[in-house]
């Protein structure tokens, strides 16, 4: 799935320090991605992987994605159709992994104003998050245009492949 | 102030060299050439092989890639075996000269084999890659897609980080180790020090051997920092020589300038530090050991890159000598490398551990990464000398992991519950 700023999605809201083992649990790391993704968030929320819909948005607090460099932490979200991750702050490896996999990661101080199930759309280059359910707008850190090029291509690999083919 | 005389921290000096510029400033985006690259079986070939092929790219320099199988070793099922087979084939097909197959945990292998030289800039496909900072390197962890880019080009862009200086003066008390320092810092500084370098200084650091210094830099990952660094000294050079390598530079070039600018500075007295324990499910949930009375442990685990090196096994042996593991508790020890196992066998350490009732496991990441022997069941409690106690990391999502030094883990194994190791020393 490539990024689409028109799309609305339901918010799944979690707290601080969502770590990479919650997103991609170690015991399933040898499984194929489709199988691993079924266990995403299971240590704290068994509904997520079953009920999340394409275009939905994951919202965290501080240090989202702390822990391992395992890219599967971001990839599991992509696999399940998550369109955007919003958090007060991100662990740096996760942040880079997310963008490199085509998943916009938005740093937003107002992340805690979003409630579970709110309908959200985002404009990452403008640094805007729209909460349609609450009729509110939040500022976030804009993703620089050169990184958004990578996100829009669907990640670093398709971005580089497109470049090679030109 | 002229460009040439701009005061820089150690991290800034290394980045400047790698980017081939006179100096750098925090916040700058800059492209660096890597001196070496570290990969392991979990995030390495199985994740980069197809990506490299899709780009029609070859590795930039097979002699600058260090590949280690440590996560899925030894194979416990067909899937693990297949991952290891793929790793071995890729190493052969790509002429990787530094491939260490089941010889130890990647960060420990980097030190044992002398791949870390002061002033080097490295990346690793593992979040504990900051371990390399103990040798005066700048080393960061990255994911597999970025790794593909680095393998193809030998370069990576980074944002120049600010440095936090953490000064530990004084001397650590008996029964207190660098793991206690790091658990204490997880509580004190929190786990959200993004885009910062932690530089360790002070007499307590000067007195530490390289294995203990590696714990400090390793666990800057738990602080959420970009990496950790320690300026090289005579201990650093001695360790490089033991590894059979020669450092041709000058360690004086790889010290922070006395007037370098730090984002923050902290000063602590090492002699005041007590053994520390982190409660589930974050290293930040740390407190002095005496605030954990009557926490029963089903399993005590001595393993991983921060917790099963030779020094760690020595700490455990000091506590365990002449004692027995409590009924209802099991003690598992997975030495951090094959060399560690050999050394611990020849100096009598393994005998002390096994006489006390410890079960010795093969070397590798094992239970720490939730991928090998030592997983824990629903409702079980483990105390571990590893670096992370995230929910579900070591097995069941409904298990609990406490973190402590090897002294503390050994003490808990004897007591059957969390205990102050100083009572056994």
UniProtKB/TrEMBL annotation, chain A:
Job of this protein: Catalyzes the isomerization between 2-isopropylmalate and 3-isopropylmalate, via the formation of 2-isopropylmaleate.
TM annotation in the entry: none
Xref: SUPFAM superfamilies: LeuD/IlvD-like (SSF52016)
Enzyme class: lyase
Catalytic activity: (2R,3S)-3-isopropylmalate = (2S)-2-isopropylmalate
This protein's record includes keyword RNA-binding: no
Residue span(s) of domain Aconitase A/isopropylmalate dehydratase small subunit swivel: 42-105
Coiled coil: none
E.C. code: 4.2.1.33
Keywords, in A-Z order: Amino-acid biosynthesis, Branched-chain amino acid biosynthesis, Leucine biosynthesis, Lyase
UniProt subunit comment: Heterodimer of LeuC and LeuD.
Protein name, per record: 3-isopropylmalate dehydratase small subunit
Xref: InterPro entries: Aconitase/3IPM_dehydase_swvl, AconitaseA/IPMdHydase_ssu_swvl, IPMI_Swivel, LeuD, LeuD_type2/HacB/DmdB
Gene encoding the protein: leuD
UniProt xrefs under NCBIfam families: LEUD_arch
Pfam families linked to this entry: Aconitase_C
Family: Belongs to the LeuD family. LeuD type 2 subfamily.
Keyword Nucleus attributed: no
Domain of life according to the entry: Bacteria
Associated pathway: Amino-acid biosynthesis; L-leucine biosynthesis; L-leucine from 3-methyl-2-oxobutanoate: step 2/4
From TrEMBL, chain B:
Keywords, sorted A to Z: 4Fe-4S, Iron, Iron-sulfur, Lyase, Metal-binding
E.C. number(s) listed in UniProt: 4.2.1.33
Annotated GO MF terms: 3-isopropylmalate dehydratase activity
Record's keyword annotation contains 4Fe-4S: yes
Every Aconitase/3-isopropylmalate dehydratase large subunit alpha/beta/alpha domain range: 25-291
Keyword Metal-binding part of the UniProt annotation: yes
InterPro entries noted in UniProt: Acnase/IPM_dHydase_lsu_aba_1/3, Acoase/IPM_deHydtase_lsu_aba, Aconitase_4Fe-4S_dom, HAcnase/IPMdehydase_lsu_prok, Homoacnase/IPMdehydase_lsu, IPM_dehydratase_rel_enz
Family matches, as Pfam families: Aconitase (PF00330)
Subunit annotation: Heterodimer of LeuC and LeuD.
Protein name: Aconitase/3-isopropylmalate dehydratase large subunit family protein
